[in-house]
């Protein structure tokens, strides 16, 4: 996958929150084969964060994609992005502008505005968006070169809520890198996203909150790879009625 | 004077953002700063003068999704 001029071999992007321990996080990232991990910014002194966390991520040797998680306004998101660019030394930003707290649904109006501001400032914006086709077009107009529609609400593990909408996005924007971000709970969900022709999957909770995060990271990596291979292999069409797979011609007759 | 650092009142002697960071023990820490809601790049901290009651945010990396 080529995104903002960077070639990524792994099509699995992994979040770094909610792991049982820093050691499990590190092992899960390695097991996932992810080349990109998402990170965040919070007030200095919050447990699990700070200089120790940053050292751990740097030691993993992966690329970081900072997010603006928790931001509800354009100003919050833009300010957080500017701070993240300095701390993480990257123009990449996973842009989140949250519009509703029960679903963590993006405020797509604020998202487009923030994307325009940040793109003009030289950021390379990865917008966390809904599966709305028109919004997707506006985000591209705003300067985004990748889109990250949700599969289902963040942390819900419900999988792909609306395969039709994601298929439609894929068909309309065949040359834009598309990443399903949020909602993945199982490897089968990740495989489904890839079978739809998505370029990558971004997930966190499904691995971090599994009983064995390292094993689940491995499972997700294989599912993403399997789904991608299946897409490239051009799957058969589904049909309603049975069609025998063994030859019909040459059937013996065993009648008396 | 009293300023609000990460939401909590702190008594500080320093009058600039870089000096306040040093006074509060953030010397060399990998942090990003904001003053009155606006991002202050590391290079601009020395020129950032603080006044009584100013809000300062000091952020550091943490896990995220």
From TrEMBL, chain A:
The residue ranges of the Thiazole synthase ThiG domain are 3-247
Answer yes or no on keyword Coiled coil.
Answer: no
Q: What is its EC number?
A: 2.8.1.10
SUPFAM superfamilies linked to this entry: ThiG-like (SSF110399)
Pfam name, any one:
ThiG
Please provide, in alphabetical order, the Gene Ontology terms of the cellular component aspect for this entry: cytoplasm
Q: Where does 1-deoxy-D-xylulose 5-phosphate bind?
A: 155, 182-183, 204-205
Q: Which subcellular locations apply to this protein?
A: Cytoplasm
Task: Give the record's keywords alphabetically.
Answer: Cytoplasm, Schiff base, Thiamine biosynthesis, Transferase
Q: Which GO terms describe its molecular function?
A: thiazole synthase activity
Q: Which residues form the active site?
A: 94 (schiff-base intermediate with dxp)
Per its record, the protein catalyses: [ThiS sulfur-carrier protein]-C-terminal-Gly-aminoethanethioate + 2-iminoacetate + 1-deoxy-D-xylulose 5-phosphate = [ThiS sulfur-carrier protein]-C-terminal Gly-Gly + 2-[(2R,5Z)-2-carboxy-4-methylthiazol-5(2H)-ylidene]ethyl phosphate + 2 H2O + H(+)
Its annotated function is as follows:
Catalyzes the rearrangement of 1-deoxy-D-xylulose 5-phosphate (DXP) to produce the thiazole phosphate moiety of thiamine. Sulfur is provided by the thiocarboxylate moiety of the carrier protein ThiS. In vitro, sulfur can be provided by H(2)S.
Q: How does it assemble?
A: Homotetramer. Forms heterodimers with either ThiH or ThiS.
Q: Which PANTHER family match?
A: THIAZOLE SYNTHASE
* Family matches, as HAMAP family: ThiG (MF_00443)
State the family it belongs to.
Belongs to the ThiG family.
- Spell out the protein name for this chain: Thiazole synthase
Q: Specify the species.
A: Teichococcus oryzae
Its gene name is thiG
Automatic annotation (TrEMBL), chain B:
Task: Kindly list any coiled-coil regions of this protein.
Answer: none
Instruction: List the CDD domains hit by this protein, alphabetically.
Output: Ubl_ThiS
Source taxon at top rank: Bacteria
User: Cross-referenced Gene3D superfamilies, in alphabetical order?
Assistant: 3.10.20.30
NCBIfam families given in the database record:
thiS
Instruction: Give the protein's recorded name.
Output: Sulfur carrier protein ThiS
Species of provenance: Teichococcus oryzae
Q: Which gene encodes it?
A: thiS
């Amino acid at each position: 996958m080529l995104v903002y001029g960077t070639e990524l071999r792994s099509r699995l992007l992994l979040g770094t929150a909610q792991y049982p321990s820093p050691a499990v996080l590190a092992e899960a990232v390695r097991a996932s084969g992810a080349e990109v991990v998402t990170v965040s910014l919070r007030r200095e002194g919050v447990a699990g964060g700070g200089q120790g966390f940053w050292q751990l991520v740097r030691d993993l040797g992966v690329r970081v994609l900072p997010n603006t998680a928790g931001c509800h306004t354009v100003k919050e998101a833009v300010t957080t992005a500017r701070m993240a660019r300095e701390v993480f030394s990257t123009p990449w930003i996973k842009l989140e502008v949250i519009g509703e707290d029960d679903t963590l649904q993006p405020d797509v109006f604020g998202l487009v505005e923030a994307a325009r501001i940040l793109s003009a400032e030289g950021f390379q914006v990865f917008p966390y968006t809904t599966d709305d086709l028109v919004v997707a077009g506006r985000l591209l107009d705003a300067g985004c070169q990748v889109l990250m529609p949700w599969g289902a609400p963040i942390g819900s593990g419900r999988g792909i809520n609306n395969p039709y909408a994601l298929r439609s996005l894929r068909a309309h924007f065949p040359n834009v890198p598309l990443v399903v971000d949020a909602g993945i709970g199982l490897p089968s969900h990740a495989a489904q996203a890839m079978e739809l022709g998505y370029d990558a999957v971004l997930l966190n909770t499904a691995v971090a909150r599994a009983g064995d995060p390292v094993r689940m990271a491995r499972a997700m990596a294989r599912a993403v790879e399997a789904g991608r291979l299946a897409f490239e292999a051009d799957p058969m069409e589904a049909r309603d009625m049975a069609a025998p797979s063994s030859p019909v011609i040459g059937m013996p007759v065993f009648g008396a | 004077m009293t300023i609000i650092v990460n939401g909590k009142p702190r008594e500080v002697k320093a009058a600039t953002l870089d000096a306040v960071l040093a006074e509060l023990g953030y010397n060399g820490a990998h942090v990003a700063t904001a003053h009155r809601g606006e991002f202050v790049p590391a290079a601009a901290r020395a020129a950032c003068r603080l006044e009584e009651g100013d809000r300062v945010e000091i952020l550091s990396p943490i896990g995220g999704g």
